[in-house]
From TrEMBL, chain A:
Domain Thiolase N-terminal, residue spans: 19-222
InterPro entries xrefs: Thiolase, Thiolase-like, Thiolase_C_2, Thiolase_N
Record-annotated Thiolase C-terminal domain positions: 268-375
Taxonomic source organism: Kutzneria buriramensis
Signal peptide, first to last residue: none
SUPFAM superfamilies in the cross-refs: Thiolase-like (SSF53901)
Official protein name in the record: Acetyl-CoA acetyltransferase
Automatic annotation (TrEMBL), chain B:
Domain FAS1-like dehydratase: 25-147
Domain of life: Bacteria
Domain ChsH2 C-terminal OB-fold: 217-276
Signal peptide (residue range): none
Domain ChsH2 rubredoxin-like zinc ribbon residues, every copy: 176-206
Species of provenance: Kutzneria buriramensis
Stated name of the protein: OB-fold protein
Lineage, highest ranks first: Bacteria, Bacillati, Actinomycetota, Actinomycetes, Pseudonocardiales
UniProt cross-references to SUPFAM superfamilies, sorted A to Z: Nucleic acid-binding proteins, Thioesterase/thiol ester dehydrase-isomerase
């Protein structure tokens, strides 16, 4: 692809923003444009999640964007994150739009909390509502419980333990501890604290679950040619992919032959490596969607960083720490920094490519980013401009 | 949980401590703030801004956006009540007495004491405690204004939440009709014979639009399971076990695993179906066999 990420913007990450979601959206978009050296009048495309409550026209109106030639929404919760950039890049590559901003803004902690049991999700008169009728009435209707069901099977098949999941949480909180923007700045945890944290849905402890956050992130995408004239070094899109697999459900793909996998992420990975022309060995930093720790392990396997069932050994020796061979989520991820539906991870990938993250990994050339897991998902490979 | 007696005891102790540390106004009484206030309220009394409107008294000692921790008794008592589950709040009374006008240049300080905490009271909002504080604003040692402030801290009434009932479509109706008459029905493609759960209109294997069903023997094994603790789920008492069961016919199905010690559940455990009425529906659930 010849499109690039040229601006990132965000609000503070909090538990109660005290502002409307629309205001959060326009603050983040505005910051991203300013950083890129662009004006609202340069924007001709906007992309967000179907779950976002802020219409593209409302965002455009507030910013004074005069004309939009491209506006689109991606479905399936956090699985949309990297796909917003992919759709923006496709619009740029086809000439449909020139400057596209991807945004996600919510008061997810002080407003509608995703971690609660949503009776509404089970009563939608849609195919998704009917899908949910096989789980919600039985009491399985929170994100944590749907992941716990897969995690239990994964533990059974490969001998992974709660401590293995805990090592992911501890690493994320270590990284957040030195990130002043992170909610858990200066608040690392130990494995013992992970183990002692209360059960949410066994086998998941509280500290296996990401935070709930208020905040917004925006990402500006334009052509590589234009990117080279802008204020920031370009993060070039080397791969951008979406994936949905056989017998796909949202969070409850329990009816496939192999339940303890994320084949849709495998599908995203295969596309990314093919597009980028290299594989996991060339990746310097991984930003993997970490709403729940078990899916971080399964993603490492699906993306080919290690074999099936081997993730627990792969992460055991500090490999995913800042000084490891595959630093994972240097910003602290959604477990440590904030839960902005994966968009804050894309922003961190851009900083790592630019070389200006607070937890900068040395000599970063290539970063892989993934979006929400357990749902149809997406991914990106970003590289330095060379 | 502290017993109700505990709350009263804490309150008496806090009341006996008298006035808290004075909070000194960030800025002296000033014309700029007076002008902003009177303009916003549309008060064109010519006495202002030579003196400040008396009702502005709280303005001068506001905590600001990033308050320092203090020993204000209202905050401390609220924390005690929060911890006891009286987490909601509504202000019920605010009575201010003004001793004299304030003039630009004067710097006030406010101090508060806990007057009384009364409860538990049954109110329309729920069970709660009335917390009354008295605040005095002073310039130097001279009291210039006072306020009696009362809030109700209450335990929000639990919202009655019925169990979630399934969304039924024409493609899935047969299943729910079945559970109602004690049949666990599995969709079967009339063309190729493939069994399938959850059901749908088209056979993914042969694309036939001719679904029928068989009645399962209702026997299977736990394929995976969870023990749900948090958050609360409508119609369920936590903790409870949800099992994904692989039926002998080869399809998987979710249901609550009933009457079981969560510690004893294992993958591979043999179970059988049990039908549980829930509102106008009957849900499939499991019991250990």
């Amino acid at each position: 692809m010849s499109a690039a990420l040229v601006g990132i913007g965000a609000t503070e990450f909090s538990k109660e923003s005290g502002r409307s979601e629309l205001r959060l959206a326009v603050e983040a978009v505005s910051a991203a444009l300013a950083e890129a050296g662009l004006k609202p009048s340069d924007v001709d495309g906007l992309v967000s999640f179907t779950m976002d409550s802020n219409a593209e026209i409302a965002v455009a109106r507030e910013l004074g964007v005069p004309e939009l030639t491209f506006f689109s929404r991606i479905n399936y919760g956090g699985g949309a994150a990297c796909a917003t950039v992919q759709h923006a890049a496709m619009a740029v590559e086809t000439g449909i739009a020139e400057v596209v901003v991807c945004y996600r803004a919510f008061n997810e902690r002080s407003g509608h909390r995703f971690g609660q049991f949503s009776s509404a999700a089970a009563t939608n008169p849609t195919s998704s509502g009917v899908d949910n009728s096989w789980s919600y009435p039985m009491g399985l209707g929170t994100p944590a419980s749907t992941v716990a069901m897969v995690a239990r099977r994964y533990m059974h098949e490969f001998g992974a333990t709660s401590e293995d999941f805990g090592r992911v949480a501890v690493t994320m909180r270590d990284h957040a501890a030195t990130n002043p923007k992170a909610w858990f700045h200066r608040r690392p945890i130990t494995l013992e604290e992970h183990q002692a944290s209360r059960w949410i849905t066994e086998p998941l402890h509280l500290l296996d679950c990401c935070q709930e956050s208020d905040g917004a992130v925006a990402i500006v995408v334009t052509s590589l040619a234009r990117a080279r004239d802008l204020a920031q070094p370009a993060a070039v899109i080397a791969g951008a992919a979406q994936g949905s697999s056989a017998d796909q459900y949202v969070m409850t793909s329990y009816f496939r032959d192999e339940m303890s996998r994320l084949p849709e992420m495998g599908l995203v990975g295969r596309q990314l490596w093919r597009q980028a022309g290299f594989g996991p060995d060339e990746i310097d930093v991984a930003v993997l969607y970490d709403h729940f720790t078990p899916y971080v392990l399964i993603q490492l396997e699906e993306l080919g960083f290690c074999g099936r069932g081997e993730a627990k050994e792969f992460i055991a020796d500090g490999r995913i720490g800042l000084t490891g061979t595959l630093p994972l989520n240097p910003h602290g991820g959604q477990l440590g920094e904030a839960y902005i539906h994966g968009m804050n991870g894309i922003a961190e990938a851009v900083r790592q490519i630019r070389g200006n993250s607070v937890n900068q990994v040395r000599g970063v050339e290539n970063v892989v980013v993934t979006a929400g897991t357990g749902v149809p998902t997406s991914g990106l490979v970003l590289t330095r401009d060379r | 949980m502290t017993a109700p007696k505990g709350i009263s005891a804490v309150a008496r102790e806090m009341a006996a401590q008298g006035e808290c540390t004075p909070r000194v106004a960030r800025d002296p009484v000033n014309e700029a703030m007076i002008n902003n206030w009177t303009e916003a309220l549309g008060d064109d009394n010519p006495a202002y801004p030579a003196v400040a409107p008396p009702a502005m008294v709280q303005v001068w000692t506001m905590r600001g956006l990033h308050p320092n921790p203090d020993d204000d008794p209202l905050g401390r008592m609220s924390e005690v009540l929060d911890a006891e589950g009286y987490t909601s709040v509504v202000a019920t009374n605010s009575e201010q007495t003004y001793h004299r006008h304030l003039k630009p240049g004067e710097r006030v300080a406010v101090t508060s004491r806990l007057e009384e905490v009364v409860g538990p009271k049954q109110t329309a909002l729920g069970e709660g405690w009335f917390v009354t504080t008295r605040s005095i604003w002073r310039v130097g040692d001279e009291p210039v204004a006072e306020m009696m402030f009362r809030i109700l801290k209450f335990r929000p009434k639990p919202v009655a939440r019925a169990a979630v009932t399934p969304m039924v479509s024409k493609d899935t109706e047969f299943f729910w009709v079945g559970t109602k008459i004690g049949e666990l029905r599995i969709q079967k493609c009339a063309a190729c014979g493939a069994l399938r759960h959850p059901p749908g209109p088209m056979c993914p294997r042969c694309n036939a639009l001719d679904p029928t069903f068989i009645v399962s023997g209702g026997l299977g094994e736990v394929y995976s399971y969870v023990v749900h603790h948090h958050p609360q789920v409508p119609g369920k008492r936590t903790p409870f076990v949800i099992a994904l069961v692989e039926l002998e016919e080869g399809v998987r199905m979710l249901g609550e695993l009933l009457d079981v010690d969560p510690e004893q559940v294992k993958i591979g455990m043999p179970v059988r179906v049990r039908f549980v009425p829930s509102g106008e529906f009957t849900l499939p659930a499991w019991e250990v066999r």
